[in-house]
Amino acid sequence: MIAVYLEARDGKIKKSSFEALAEAKRRAAELGVATAAVLVGGAVADLAPGAFAYGAANVYVIENELLADYSAQGYGLALAALAAEIRPEALFFPATAMGRDLAPRVAARLGVGLASDCVKVAVKGGDLVFTRPIYAGKAVLTFTLKTRPRLATLRPNIFPLGEASAAAGEVVRKDVAIPDGAIKGRAVEVIREESGEIDVTEADVVVSGGRGFKGPDAFALLRDLAAVFPRAAVGASRSAVDSGWIGHQHQVGQTGKTVSPNLYIAAGISGAIQHLAGISSSKFIVAVNKDPEAPIFKIADYGIVGDLFEVLPKLKDELKKALAD
Length: 325
Hints:
With 325 residues, the protein is of the alpha/beta class. The protein contains nine helices and 17 strands. It has helices at residues 15-31, 48-53, 72-86, 97-110, 219-226, 238-242, 273-279, 296-299, 308-324; strands at 2-5, 8-9, 12-13, 35-41, 58-63, 90-94, 114-118, 120-124, 127-134, 139-143, 150-154, 170-174, 205-209, 232-236, 263-267, 284-289, 302-305.
């Protein structure tokens, strides 16, 4: 069995979790094993049909009032206990902020290795083979894991989702005892952005700005451009975030979030190595910079040398016309 942890937020399963589940289904078919999903929370059983639609034969549901809000300690304990009981061949996580926080804790509890931020999973010789970028995206590493179960986090927007089906399956409820004192921290408040923007890791289009914007007010240009596309998000370089021009949840790069959109537009970003590492798996990269020698042009599919304050409004107008046709 290949099991997949499904991240649920605001009563919905995140798209990146369904991508991991769809990939698990493909690899499980090659190995001749079943596919399962795992939901953890206070009341999450009603979300199970979504997992059946993307390939899960059954869904393990762990419900506990102490797990109503995400806790790395509580969720890690619950998942490790379940994995020790059902003994899957592999356990996949989406490489989201939660997945990157949770997977290492589960691996540590089980005493197994972890393949993190994978961009490819294959089956060779009856074993799972993982591929991930290394050295800030300058090289890729292909490897297997000796320990069982094989734990891996899968980068969002890399693995094809496929079409949802009307398949059904079995919901298996599991009780996990949470000892007193096991959860040492708890969420007391969740502060959300009022704009309700899509997270940059799950957007199909990301438009990012850097130091070239010269201040926070100019980021309105990016938001206007992002509004032209469906499922678009606004990103930023570390320098723009450190300057306080935009929230740190928008930061793209090695010290921020790794993104893999269909289209990445970088405006006023020179292309520091940590930023390039976070966008290397984007399908198409368009750079706008007035410096023709900016490093960002070395990896861009298309480059525009010019003043972003002149280019972005014209680009927005032309895209509106093209998308309206």
